[in-house]
Amino acid sequence: MKKRTFFLLSAVILGVLSLSAQRKRIVRPALPKPTLTECIARYDFTTAAQILHEMAVKAAPLTRRDSLLVEARKMERAADFLSNTERVVFIDSVVVDKVQLLSVLRLSTDAGRLVSTASLFRSDPMRGIQLGVGTYINPLETAAISSLSAPGGTLRLQSAYRSANGWEKPRPLEGIDSTFAQADMPYLLSDGTTLYFAAEGPESVGGYDIFVTRYNPETRQYVRPANIGMPFNSPANDYLYLIDEGSGMGYFATDRRQPVGKVCLYTFLPNTERNVYDVASMPTDSLLRAAQISCIADTQVGHERDINEAQVRRKALQNSSISDFADFRFVLNDERVCTNLADFQNDQARKQALVWYKQQQQLAQFIKRREALQRDYGEMRTERMAQELRQLEIQIAQLNNQLREMAKAIRKIELQ
Hints:
Largest sheet: 6 strands, antiparallel
Radius of gyration: 29 Å
Helix content: 40-55%
């Protein structure tokens, strides 16, 4: 009996040892390392910087190595921005076509205007002079800051003043050098010194970033621009930042998480001073959500009253927008014609009608410019005039098509 028990016990022990040995021999596959793209997408900028440094060490051409090191420094800067993310209360957001961004904005009268650069200045492809997207015009309509390129150069911010004969020749803003490439969408605060704009370059996180600078009257130039950080800047393109002090609201546009050709326009409550999140007492996931603007409802907790007041101010601003224009007329059908924004019953149709009207105004400007150019061309035919006429014809045709499609969409929304 004892011998039998001994054999059974031995068999059990051997079985256990055999199973243990098998388990030890099991080699679990190592988890794949995250790619550079994955790290950037999830805002793991520290790991992204490490990957770029490793790539730079292995890079053969010196120019390739230098470019990788520049990108690594961008990621290190992004990691610093993440840990200093500003607390911002976002009111709401709307996705619009990128080409319609300027048409959607409705600012108070003392905030100036953002208009298409093409409506003020002419491009000259033969000389390599190109136009940016947006131009800021001050409330008095006496000065403008535009995005224009010098012959063969990148877009730079330039100022121009209006005289009795029209806009004078633009001049580059001193202090904002070519480091800030393709600078565009400028906006000057009511203090006349604080300037926001979008630009690419080594000091951006990725694509276009928003920068701020201030004019120094002693040196007669702008101080070196600074990146405004997160949540406004991201690895995507962040195009526009402005504060309408008259309405107490800010506007910010980005293409993050948007399909090609679309941008998301956010409305937010401007801070009187920069207030950042306490990273030490904040979960990492919450910080990432704030930096990425993943959920604007997260930012609204405890600020409901301020948001409601801002929405009331904005509604009053929108309601006054078309009542100021006596020529507004939108035919819905044989029985209904809208001559005011208030005539629309659907909120979405009302918003789209405002965009439609501003597009109509832009079309009228293009047609007026074409007529004047045709008169000049009849007296003095130049290749530059011919090129601009061709460009205007294309823009007018495109706007007409957009307006027709927009009108169909408005009727469908309002009459459904």
